[in-house]
Design goal:
Structural class: alpha+beta
Distance between the termini: 43 Å
Shape: elongated
Number of helices: 2
Number of strands: 3
Strand content: 25-35%
Strand order of the largest sheet: 1-2-3
Largest sheet: 3 strands, antiparallel
Helix content: 40-55%
Length: about 100
């Protein structure tokens, strides 16, 4: 099993970027990464200001990539997916997404 600790700085930077981009529109943004034997899962709970918390789970699936660049590419794709979830949640709950 690869050591996933080398992904933590990239994960933390991605979460900080999400907070910077979406922070003014959100009352809550919690993001946690869970590593299991062969998969990585990201749990996200977010709430637009004045809205209800909405939980999401982003699974990176069977995670057998052993090289850091491959793992970071999966992480980037997962964080892009989370950004789209945030945009969709803000639009659905009537809040303006950043840049709109």
């Amino acid at each position: 099993m690869p050591d996933y600790d080398d992904m933590v700085p990239a994960f933390e930077a991605a979460v900080a970027s999400l907070r910077e981009t979406y922070g003014p529109s959100l009352a809550l943004l919690e993001v946690e990464m869970t590593v299991e034997r062969t998969s990585v899962q990201i749990e996200v709970t977010l709430a637009p200001k004045g809205g209800e918390p909405v939980p999401h789970t982003v699974k990176m699936g069977s995670f057998t990539a052993t090289r850091l660049p491959e793992r970071l590419a999966y992480l980037r794709a997962a964080m892009d997916h989370i950004a789209r979830l945030i945009d969709d949640t803000l639009v659905h709950q009537g809040a303006a997404a950043p840049g709109s």
